[in-house]
Every structure is written in structure tokens, then in C-alpha cells.
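To close the chapter, one final illustration. This time we ask the reader to focus less on the individual chains and more on the assembly as a whole: which components sit near each other, and how the overall shape emerges from the parts.
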Amino acid sequence: MTATSFDAPPSSSALSLAGVTCTFADKADPSRRYTAVRDVTLAVGAGEFVSVVGPTGCGKSTLLNVAAGLLAPSSGTVAVFGTPLAGINRRAGYMFQTESLMPWRTALQNVAAGLEFRGSAGADEQAQEWLKRVGLGAFADRYPHQLSGGMRKRVSLAQTLVLDPDIILMDEPFSALDVQTRQLMENEVLAIWAEKKKAVLFITHDLDEAIAMSDRVVCLSAGPASHPIGEFAIDLARPRDVAEVRATPRFVELHQAIWSVLREEVLAGYRQQLAA
Amino acid sequence: MKYLRLWQAGLLVAVFVVWHLLTTPGLLPNFMFENDRQAAFFFGEPVKIFGRIWTWFVVNADIYQHLWVTLLETALAFAIGTLLGLGFGLWLALSPMAGAIADPYIKALNSMPRVILAPIFAVWFGLGVASKVALGVTLVFFIVFFNVYQGVKEVSPVVLASARMLGASQRQLLRHVYLPSATSWVFSSLHTSVGLAFVGAVVGEYLGSSRGVGYLILQAEGAFDINTVMAGILVLTAFALALDAGVGRIERRLMRWQPAAGETEKI
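The assembled structure is written out below.
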């Protein structure tokens, strides 16, 4: 269970980032540059659940935006099922950290939006089915502001999954939720994932969450210019209950091993923020 | 507040009573004017004003065509101004180049006192409905334009990214993200823009026309008939209030998705 070496991503990967570097230039002063991530190579196999953990401000979201095609990397390449990515990643669904629902659409209309954009027939029926699946069948005609934070996350989940994407990108999707709701949502996501076996790239700063949910955990160094510093296979048996699995000895072992790698980086990140 | 409406109505009645007492010749001893007819000449007499309104609406029933013309001008100015503002706002906000080029011109046109254009519009479009609509459009356009511009700029980047990830094309982004966001800003300025369309219509009529409530006021003023002028003003005020109430109704229907503070209901 040592950190494995970073081999070139196999061509069978659902998603592979190779040598991705993202440098942002200050608009007002182009000479001031900030490199969020440097030389990141990362692959997610088809049906694999991979989590990326790292200290705050280490460019985790930047990586996800690159994988989504929302952000073009300064250098490096992104391949989706072996095909180089240009523009938006059409095979991926993205669950954002912050509110992403369209406030002028009801829950149902929000879930149906993607199908509507793609011109699929029967958008409303499928959307209704997914709303039921995330436990919001009775809330179809509510507007986002009439739903609680947890409910809105469920709608986002349904909105992403109704399109049946081959790759699911999640950016700390549950970080704004309370612990109980969060565990419920995590279990729901795991159940849906187990059924559909999609490739998942899950970003979080919560190591417990990462271990409880993933097949593999990748640690990023503190920013700027963060890069992977460790990769751990999580060999806990599935199906897992995110609350129960935390009590198993193997979980504690894995947690200690990963934390020993991560701790220095978290402290480094904290020191940098203090110094800034 | 209990009896709020009652108090409000009472205040209105009180204003008219005081007005009546102060202006009716011979009712009170003179303290401002030498002649007891002068107060009535300058300020009008409420009884005669209401008589005038009664004649307009019931006896002769000849104000409806004028009201209709004013309403038509207001509605056209509002509709055309809103559509133009929406179109230009979306265009200039979404294409940074065009926006940057047009910026100083928009600012210059907006800071120009638009009423000054009325004589030009009268020359271009004649004394009919068109010149009033043109004046109203110049007033409404900028309100809507700036709100749409703001609305587009303030679209949440996350919502935008989300819509793109859901597969929205540029056109669909415009239709399903930018437009709803922009219209929410337009609706928030609906009261102002309808009000300004109305101002444009009345001012246009007042400066030269052959029909409309503004025309009635202009005619009466020419004859020093202060009672008719006041009656016209009262009719316009009531009309504007009704228009505003109508707008409020439409707004509540269309903006159902926007959060309102305190939505709980007492059982």
C-alpha cells in the first residue's frame, strides 16, 4: 500500500490527464502568474471511483474543470476514452460545489434541462423518474429557493445522472451539507454508482469521505504548482456504508497511511495562507 | 396596521376638503389674494374639477378616445423600448468588442435630456401617435438596456458552466440562461419603465398633438381653464396608478421563481 508510481495512463482509461499544467495570468498585471497545478498525470478507469484529496487552495477544482473541458490547460493533454478532448467534455456530467441549479426553473425543469438541450424525447418522464429516485418525487414543481440545501443537491445529482454520463465529475458536492444529510447522500451516490458503474472523479478535502467512497485516493501537494504526491488503492469491501466503514480497522489503517503523506502538505498550505 | 386604507382614504378626502375651503370664492376671508376669485383661478375648485371629470366620463363620454390614445402610446413605447433594450443589451453584453465600442455612445445618449428630442420627433413622425411612441422609446430603452446588460453580466458563472456541461449550445445558453436572467432584471425595473413610457406619451402629447390626455391638458391651459387642467392631472394620476397595479400583478405572476422574504403562512 505504498504510493504507486505514476505510469502513463492506460488507453482503456475513461479519463486521462497527462502532464497537465494550468498557469493563470493576472489580467491587470500579466507579469504576475499563478500556477495552480503543475505536471499532473491522472487516469480514471472505466467504472472506477477515484478521489482527489489535498489541502485547501491546491487546485483540485482546476483539475476538475480541465477534465470537464471548461478550462483548457496551459500545457498537457486530456483524453476521454482515448480521444483527445477539445471543448466541453460531452461524455461527462459535472456536479458543482456551489449552487448550479437554474433558479428560474422548477426542480423537474432543472432535471429535464440536459435532456431538453440534447433534444431527447420524453424528457419530463425521465426527469420525474430521477426525481423520484433521489427522493424528491413530490417536489417536482418547486423552485430551487423553495428547497433545502440538501434537496437542491439531490436535484443537482438527478440533473447530472439523468443524462447517463460515462464520466461523473464531482467537486466537493456535499461540503455544504450537514453530517447526517451528507452521509445519506454519499450512500445514495455509492448505490447509484454500484448500479451503473460509471467512472467517477471525486474532489474533496475530506479524507474520510474520500476513503469511504473510492477505489483509489490521489493526494495532491499544497499549491501553488500542486501535483500528485501519493496514490492509494482502497481495498475495503463493497458495498460500503460510509458511516459504518469508518469504524473498521482497515479504514483506520488506510486513513493513517494517507494522512501521514497529506499532513505535511496541509500544514504547508496553511503556512502559506498565513504568510500571504 | 388596521384601517390603513381608511386612513389613506381619509387623508385624500381631507386634502380635497382643505382645497375646497381655500379656493371657493367667498367661503373664507381673503388672506393671500386681493380678489376672492384669484385662488380659484390659480388652483381650481375641487367641485368643478370633479364635475369636469364626470362630464368627461359619463355625460359626454368623450375622454375614452383620448385615454385610449395615451394608453396605446404608452403600451407601444413600452413594448418597442423593451424589445430594443433587450436585443441591444444582450448583444452588447455578450460581445465584448461591440460593447466596448458602443460604451461611450450609450453613456452619451443616456445622459442627454431626451425630452429635447420631442420637437425633432414631431418633425420626423408628425403630430400623431408615432412621435409620442418614439419619445417614450428613448426613455424606456435605456432603463431596459442597462438592466439587461447588468442581468447578463451577473449570470452566475456556475449556473453557466453547469448549463454548458448539460450540453447547452450557444443558442440554448442565450434562450435558457442569459434571457431568463436578463428578464428578471427587466421585470425588476418594470415599474420604472412603464412609468417612463407613460411620461413619454404624455409629454409628447403636451408638446404637440391632436389627441390624448396630454392634448386635453394643453387645450385647457391655452384657455386658462385651470379646472380642466387639474382634472386632466387627476385622471392621469389615477391612470398611472392603475397601470402600476397592473404591472405589479404581471410581475408577481412571472417572478414566481424568485425568493421572497418570509413565505410562511399563518394557519
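Chain A touches chain B at residues 65, 68, 70, 88-90, 92-94, 96, 98-106, 113-114, 117-118, 143-146, 159, 163 (CB under 8 Å). Chain A is about 35% helix and 25% strand. With these observations in hand, you are ready for the problems at the end of the chapter.
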